[in-house]
């Protein structure tokens, strides 16, 4: 697991300031890294820092990243040493010491231990952002050599972040997860990664922090031998890193290591070759160092390959030796050189392996130590050192039991995590199904509402139109009935006038008044029934013995015609009208107090 730390520290971390345009934890303190850093040169950053070392503490962070951009880390380390000697940094001492420590580690300087001691004696800063960044940077420097101390310091960074620090919270949590993974605290590592994912989700999944978090999650899955999950998460990170060649190369390198650890050697070779092509295309000062590192990881795979030829083995040894010049403490690579030398028959291979073996026993995980012991036992047996082989065999046997126990524990934890992953997937599926069901219900409900609304609109329109039609029809019927009555009145009135005149040779007295024809009567009754559809029914129920003429008389009374009007309409005298009214009253059995017009009006 620790064999991934070098590329994490040099390549993924370096990208923090060089390629970041993220938006997590947007604050005034974090703003310079996102806005000033891309537009500021290394010379400008150093000048501002030297001119005002006690002013903007974040400038130490910016200048560090800018020094890596232009391959000037040695110069920047000298600037920090000079500022440390002058003692003019004021409240920015935490920034100064932490970045001196990181420079000392990356440059393999002799003062690393002394600067480390100074860094670990720093009291917590009252500035929570400075505390968060300082502890985060110190933990980076200690991650590969002292994981326990690195975790203690990183937890201070997490605490400062949770209490108000405004640096990149997702990156701080992700690094805490990586350290916990190195120490075997896998559930805690998973908790930190989940919290980092929640933080990223709140800030819109900024690219670089998302890639780092996914990469560390893939590392955790790889350690727990959850190969499928590790490859899946790694693929997600690779998809997001397509526009960033440096991060893409780092992720391809990690993917190759996942395949290598799973015993999928051919796939690992393919991924290493893809990584080398991406690194060769990089136009950054550290690309050559990155290239040496990737070749070294590929060389370790070749060292263990039984099908490797002598030329392949010699090239692998050369690649490992070239990588050892970049950084001290690469004990796995050092041991790989010894194994390659032994397989090539070169002198001094076994002492070289023994020295690297002792360093691995002090610093690296048991699985890598067991790998070294097995190669050392094979070498001892090959040269006839049976006593040393037996001693290492006993040690390897005991270590194998430890590794097997760890392996069983890893598998149990992996099984538990996979169970929770499957359970979460099932819950997500149920939620998705419920969501789809709700969407279908909403759709059909919406459709029903739309159709119901349309139906109501249609019904309303139909009712309005029908009312208008009925109103127009009633008006037409009323006009027709009025016209018939008025025409009949006019005719009879004219006849009456002629009779009264008596002029000329014509005897007008023989001209009798006209009553409505059968056709006119039918039209009158039809129009009346349209206006008063229930009148005749109620009249007949009230007085069944009425004749058709009586009914016509009652209809004329109903529409407000007086006795004179009725006489003119029916062509009878007023006396005949009164007689007809009397006859109707008698049929209705009305008393003297009861008025015929009132009775008819109420029907």
Give a nutshell description of this structure.
The chain has 603 residues and is mainly α. The chain has helices spanning 5-12, 15-18, 31-39, 42-51, 58-69, 73-86, 93-106, 112-120, 128-142, 147-162, 169-182, 186-202, 207-223, 227-240, 245-261, 265-280, 287-303, 310-324, 331-343, 349-363, 366-382, 386-501, 518-531, 535-542, 548-558, 563-570, 574-588, 596-602. The longest helix has 116 residues, at 386-501.
How does this structure look, described?
Helices cover 77% and strands 0% of the residues. It contains 28 helices and no strands. The protein is rod-shaped.
Relative strand content: under 5%
SSE succession: HHHHHHHHHHHHHHHHHHHHHHHHHHHH
Whole-number average pLDDT?
81
End-to-end distance? 104 Å
Based on DSSP secondary structure assignment, what is the total number of beta strands?
0
Principal-axis shape: rod-shaped
The major sheet is characterized as:
none
Which regions have little confidence, pLDDT < 50, spanning 5+ residues?
A: 1-36
The helicity comes to: over 70%
Q: Please give the count of helices.
A: 28
How many whole angstroms does the radius of gyration measure? 52 Å
Secondary-structure-derived class: mainly alpha
List the main descriptive attributes of the protein structure presented here.
disordered N terminus; 77% helix; 603 residues; rod-shaped; mainly alpha
Compile the SSE list and pairings:
Elements: H1 5-12, H2 15-18, H3 31-39, H4 42-51, H5 58-69, H6 73-86, H7 93-106, H8 112-120, H9 128-142, H10 147-162, H11 169-182, H12 186-202, H13 207-223, H14 227-240, H15 245-261, H16 265-280, H17 287-303, H18 310-324, H19 331-343, H20 349-363, H21 366-382, H22 386-501, H23 518-531, H24 535-542, H25 548-558, H26 563-570, H27 574-588, H28 596-602
Helix pairs in contact: 3-5, 4-5, 5-6, 5-7, 6-7, 7-8, 7-9, 9-10, 10-11, 11-12, 11-13, 12-13, 13-14, 13-15, 14-15, 15-16, 16-17, 17-18, 17-19, 18-19, 19-20, 19-21, 20-21, 21-22, 22-23, 22-26, 26-27
